[in-house]
Write a structure and sequence with these properties.
The protein has three helices and eight strands. With 130 residues, the protein is α+β, with helices and mostly antiparallel strands. The chain has one domain: Roll (Pnp Oxidase, Chain A). A hairpin with a 2-residue loop joins strand 3 and strand 4. The N and C termini lie close together (6 Å).
């Protein structure tokens, strides 16, 4: 998990893929945070991505950095833990103008049953499960 987290942080932006019915949806994200031994991301409950994940929590994250890329397939689990919200917002103070812990809009989600595949043009992929 730590290696996947570090890759996402270094890349800065990753792409989150969800499904809306039979239509794939992809958008850029930038939050990656470890709290209580889990890798978390964050969104707003009013956004379409939140509704898509509520209907189908299976998702995939992808990022590219310096000739290497990562794909992480996981189930995203919404966590209403106020301490998890606080911890993530402390790590991302730039979100303070849009989200507050317990505001009813912030949604923190952790990756469950994740499979991270690290790839490059040189060498075999490395697979890590967490």
């Amino acid at each position: 998990m730590q290696e996947a987290y570090e890759f996402l942080k270094k890349a800065g932006t990753y792409w989150l893929a969800t499904a809306e019915g039979d239509q794939p949806r992809v958008r850029p994200f930038g939050t990656a945070h470890i709290y209580d031994g889990k890798l978390y991301i964050q969104t707003g409950k009013v956004k379409p991505v939140s509704k898509q994940l509520a209907a189908n929590p299976k998702a995939e994250l992808g990022a590219f950095d310096g000739g290497q890329w990562i794909r992480i397939a996981a189930t995203l689990v919404s966590d209403n833990n106020l301490e998890a919200e606080k911890s993530l917002l402390e790590a991302y103070p730039s979100l303070a103008d849009r989200y507050q812990p317990g505001d009813g809009n912030i949604e923190v989600l952790y990756l469950k049953d994740a499979t991270a595949t690290f790839s490059s043009f040189a060498g075999e992929p490395k697979v890590v499960k967490f």
